[in-house]
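Mods, move this if it's the wrong board.
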Amino acid sequence: MSRRLVVPLSALGARDLPLAGGKGANLGELIHAGFPVPDGFVITTEAYVAAASAAGVDPGDPADARSRLTHSPMPSEVATAVREAYRMLGGPVAVRSSATAEDLPEASFAGQQDTILDVEGEDALGAAVRHCWASLWNERALRLAVVVQRMVPAAVAGVLFTADPITGRRRRAAIDAVRGLGEQLVSGAVNPDHYLVDTTTGAVLERRGDILDDTRLRELAAMGSRIEGHYGKPQDIEWAIDDQKLWIVQSRDITTLYPIPATAPDPERDLRVYLSANVAQGVLQPFTPMGIQTFRLLGAAFASAVGKPVADPAAGASVMADAGLRLWIDLTAVIRNSASREIPVRVLSIMEARSSGIFARLLEDPRLAPRRGSRLRSVVAILRAVEHAGVPPWVLRALLRPEATRDRILRDVDAIVRSDVGPLTTPAERLVAFEQLLTTMPPRMFPRLVAVVVAGLVPYNLVSRLLRGVASDDEMRTVLRGLPFNPTTEMDLDLWAIARLVRDDPPSRAALADGAPAELSADFGRGALPEMLQRELDTFLARYGHRAIAEIDLGLPRWSEDPSHLLGALANYQRLDTAALAPDAQFARGAREAEATIATLLSRVHGPRRFLARRLLRRVRALAGVREAPKFHVVRIFALGRAILAPVGVALADAGRIAAPDDIWFLTLPDARRALAGEDMRPRVAERRAEYRREERRRHIPRVLLSDGTDAEAAFASPATDGAIRGTPASPGTARGVAHVMLSPAGARLEPGEVLVAPATDPGWTPLFLTASALVMEMGGMMSHGAVVAREYGIPAVVGVPEATTRITTGEHIVVDGSAGTVALEGG
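Not the wrong board. Structure tokens:
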């Protein structure tokens, strides 16, 4: 079969990506769809392979490869094919690279290779083609085609995004335009005119410049909408206008936009508001599909608990959505209800302060105005749901008898988690047991655990009001230091206790000093660690082995399966030898400071006010530490579910329905049932794994997403004019130290006294807190996980700091003021 060296654009389409590269395939697709694309042809990847072979290119030597491709003559058959196509097309032409890895849905690498404009003559064309071939050699593109198109003598050119690339809002075209060739815009040689157009109405919403009139802007917006409609996704479009006609010279997916939940209705008819459950929980990475499935079952369980059962538990409650393999909570009904619309603002003010400010702004949006209905009726409905869940009696018990009720609740919950889940003999029985586990156990735990958390928050809020004008914000935050009964703090202190034992055991100390965490984890699995370390880690994992980094995703391994992170933390602790920095000493000091602060506050008030303040503060100390208990015990259930499902993965892999046992985590419950019935799930798993890898690379996750695509925080953003780095005060005190920016705790090592700067934290991060001098976090509020743990260890913390991980650089000397909520460069 003869090689296809040169192919007309009009003969290409999306299917021809391997032959024509992303740009060439897209242009052919646009021509077939009837869009005005300048005529041209593609010098295919087969031509490139022939040229590279003839030039003797060594893939292992990029510099030599570029030189050979630039200076070696084309193979004669390639040169002949290119000359013939060029003579039929005529010049001048634009010559652009078209890599098989660019202009793709999963990643657009626009500008990665070169573009040469106004090329005339066969010799010039040959040189331009060789130049494009040479531009291939980087880590991303593997094969290269070259697009040759008739030049458009552009009077005006530019770029059109069919969705606002800053806010993400769909149906809002963002247009940049320059006079002459669009290359000036791409290269940054000139400042473009900028316009925003509502593609639904054609209204020009923003105008910075006079190159394009409203008629031409509406034409561009309409063309963009048609192209978006063809591809089914928002597009980044390059265009040019000659004396009369609008031409499209490229279109690619906008890969930076966050996807909208598939269940979202048309925003013109019904705008929805989604809160990121991932951001709220400090887990920015994507979820496995089975992890999402787990939360759908949980959502169904909680809906049933409040008297709103769903028809299909596997589909979950209607308030739960997923997009970008992350979880979203639909709070539209809450915001449109006059009785509840302030709740997100108030709750998030202590959990995720930046999200709270977003919701405060959303309440002003006329599209989200309260709908007609009785406020009293709404309040009654809310109270009935809470009553149906059985929460109020437990809250009352906890407030009346805090210590006894707390202990009773924790015993009850432990018994629930340990209860029988049903038969597990066959894979089908295991799927039934998994669904039953997630839909029956949490509702039994829910009223107790919610009650004990509420019973800790209520007295704190009441005593804060009672002592207003008497107690400072810092003093009230100090009251929360060293709280007992926090399972995450207890876990970290137990790990520290093992570290102290290791110091006195030479074989264990040597193993941690000499072995890599992954190797030590393998040794643990074989029972081959030094005796003391093996025994202590066994004991620790018996209590905490259900935990993990990003533990709320059931699809990820637990520490009991791979304790390498813990072993790395233990090795890190060996270098923390200053008694004052010992975590148990810090925790005990925090508890003493809290008690001393309480005594000081009580000395400032008298009579009934003092009596009531003492009783409330006692309840704060008895109950507020249990805030982490719900997550702790829910994750225990997740670990049980993972253990139930793992053998199903083995059975499906043995039957050839999935490629490997771990592929079970990339199925949903209905998928797993279909696989047991005989369906081959390998293609679906491959597709989902590819999506998971793409989403792992996504750096920005909106806190609040609207169903029109708007990233609400980006839409409301107003950057600080003084360049200050500010956030929410979370743990009082001031610390100076060297910043250490971390995006993941996996394998991380924090030097004693360094300031931990992170996007968000969950319990998988907390072993690092023991060596940190302070915490700076992009997410969170005063009662978020990182803030709670920081207070209990007595280290200053500032949370909710926008773009902290990019504005602060590892190695910078910074000052963290946990009272003022500021981060400053030392000497700045």
